[in-house]
Amino acid sequence: MKYKRILLKLSGEALMGDQQYGIDSNRLIQYAQEIKDVARLGVEVAVVIGGGNIFRGVQAEQVGLDRVQGDYMGMLATVINSMALQSALEKLGVYTRLLSGINIQQVCEPYIRRRAVRHLEKGRVVIFGAGTGNPYFTTDSAASLRAIEIEADVVLKGTRVDGIYSADPEKDPNAVFYRNISFKDVFEKGLNVMDMTAFTLCKENGLPIIVFDMNTAGNLKRLVDGEQVGTLVTMDDIAESFRETVDQLQEKESQQKPDKK
Q1: Where in the cell is it found (predicted)?
Q2: Annotated binding residue at 216?
Q3: Quick one: which of 1, 98, 125, 138 has the most CB atoms within 10 Å?
Q4: CA-to-CA distance for 79 and 82, rounded, in angstroms?
Q5: Is 132 annotated as a binding residue?
Q6: Domain positions in the chain
Q7: Does 136 belong to an annotated binding site?
């Protein structure tokens, strides 16, 4: 396995499937099966899920609610999604633990770093609910923070698209796909990978990010097996070295091809 410990970030909207709101049971089961397939290989899996399919904190001000209150409502939405994923995983025979950034002792454990790491070491899938437990921080920031705290090898951001593009591929057919890109290039090109706080946390701690299509069956397993899936975001020197290696391989392949007569 290329990665021993991963942090998988899923958006709440992804759980909606084709619905307009809530949780699509088929999508939930699909994600649970994907996670199970990876966990049984011996990979330590931690998960952070957003709550946008139920409520977003930034929506609060639009309807006249206090932003801080709205953010806490959003945290509770992530706990609902986390509980749903936990239940789906356990139905598949996967041992799990749900740790929350805010105290809800009746349904989940409080987040304690050492406890989270111990659960991972015992082979349990650890789900982090309620974001960071603080308002004004997104679940992307929570994913980056938790990944750093548990010393994950990589942040895997599961999305509806197959990686990072120069523009939204669903709106711009001429959008350019990036197979590998540096943190610096993402900043300079203004690409939307994560919110700035989350992205900067990963950059400053040298934590690579892979953006990939979670809805394609088998992608998660292929990633941990070492296959190149989605877009890899790394430090400048690593990204440059990777590009040079790819160029060398392509040049070697072209030289080995017989000339057409």
Answers
A1: Cytoplasm
A2: no
A3: 125
A4: 5
A5: yes
A6: 5-255
A7: yes
